[in-house]
Amino acid sequence: MADPHAPRHILRKPRKFRGAVLRGLTLLLPPILTIVILLWAATTIDAYLLAPIQAAARETLAWTIGDVRSLPRGEDPTKITITIDGHPYVRLASGQYVPRDVVAWLREYVPSLPLPANGAEVYRRYVESRFLKPQYVVPAFLGLFVLVLYFLGKFLAGEIGRLFDWGILRLPMVRKVYGSVKQVTDFVFGEQTHVEFKRVVVIEYPRKGLWSIGLVTGEGMLDVSAAANEPCVSIVLPTSPAIFTVKTVMVPKSKTYDVKMTIDQALQFVISCGVVVPPHQLPSLLIDKTPTTAESEPRPS
Questions:
Q1: Which pTM was predicted?
Q2: 15, 36, 61, 300: least buried by Cβ within 10 Å?
Q3: Which residues pair with 90 in a beta bridge?
Q4: What are phi and psi for residue 259, nearest 5 degrees?
Q5: 143-151 contacts, C-beta under 8 A, 24 or more apart
């Protein structure tokens, strides 16, 4: 039990220490979480997109430039280096022969790794070490990826895109997942003509007197509108701090109230658990005002 006769500055030290720790945590968590999310996105793209493309490019180049020979008749099989068609070749552990220039390059620039036993592996390592370096592959991949996205959005978003969707939506099992994901991505990234279905509202949920922020996604079901005796809208209610866990409700239009916020501002508000509020939505009482001398003096009772 704290001593009531102890000096006040001693009692305040634990609170000051805890407050400083919490302030440090609030400064440290946003960059850490940002880095974690970016690393997760980078590793996902690398594992499921960049790595397969790089492997395909490696196999294609290795097959294109590969020059693997067998021992010609009459040649001594004990020789390490032989001449074929006027060019020197080096024998591998498997008995195959590859050009001496390729082997010399690997021994000079990749000395830490042993020479592969067969010709196909030699050319895979040669192509990957010489032509598919990360400093070349990553910028080229990013540029190509953006270019592909541009052409997809510019030229293939019309009839071809609808034809592709029609084919995917005819596949069993796949169509359910694809349809749900497409609706979400169209809502977040698409340029829909119905702007009223991309607005931020608040509703009294889960009970009267408690307000929840939501995103209007479309019209409600006909049966629900008939039961409510008025048109209803479908609303997604994101949760804090993981906005991927959402609840979908249908609410009469008269029970929804528009909020002057963009979707990005609404999501920031939810993710931050209500800490990040758009400046134009801050109450005037929260604006920090430096009191004047007259205001700082105590008023007479």
A1: 0.55
A2: 300
A3: 81, 98
A4: -120, 135
A5: 145/49
